[in-house]
Design goal:
Elements (H helix, E strand, L loop, with lengths): L2 E3 L6 E5 L2 E2 L3 E8 L6 E6 L4 E5 L4 E8 L3 E11 L9 E10 L1
Parallel strand pairs: 3-9
Antiparallel strand pairs: 1-2, 2-4, 4-7, 5-6, 5-8, 8-9
Length: about 100
């Protein structure tokens, strides 16, 4: 089963598989919002990855080792220069681990 969410016209986040038994290896794919100097963060539901390009597609893998329901959230915003970027949610998927 694959879960997909699209919060705006350009950004999207998909996860496959979206459910299964632990340990569950999930592959996340998506696209950033297209902001050349943007910041993109993927929160797997406890651990984050901030190495995602804001202008290209991405693929990341995460292993969920414990049973539970996890919400993976993709956030982005313009680079803040000397101050931290303000990030908005642009995608979300729920992962269920048995």
């Amino acid at each position: 089963m694959t879960a997909t969410a699209q919060m705006n016209a350009t950004a999207a986040l998909s996860a496959s598989p979206a459910s299964g038994r632990a340990p569950l290896e999930v592959t996340f794919t998506g696209t950033g919002p297209g902001i050349p100097e943007g910041v993109v963060v993927l929160d797997f539901g406890g651990r984050t990855d901030d190495t995602i390009s804001s202008i290209r597609g991405f693929t990341r893998t995460h292993t969920y080792r414990a049973a539970g329901s996890y919400t993976a959230v993709l956030r982005s915003g313009a680079y803040g220069g000397q101050r931290p970027a303000v990030l908005s949610e642009i995608g979300r998927v729920t992962i269920v681990v048995d």
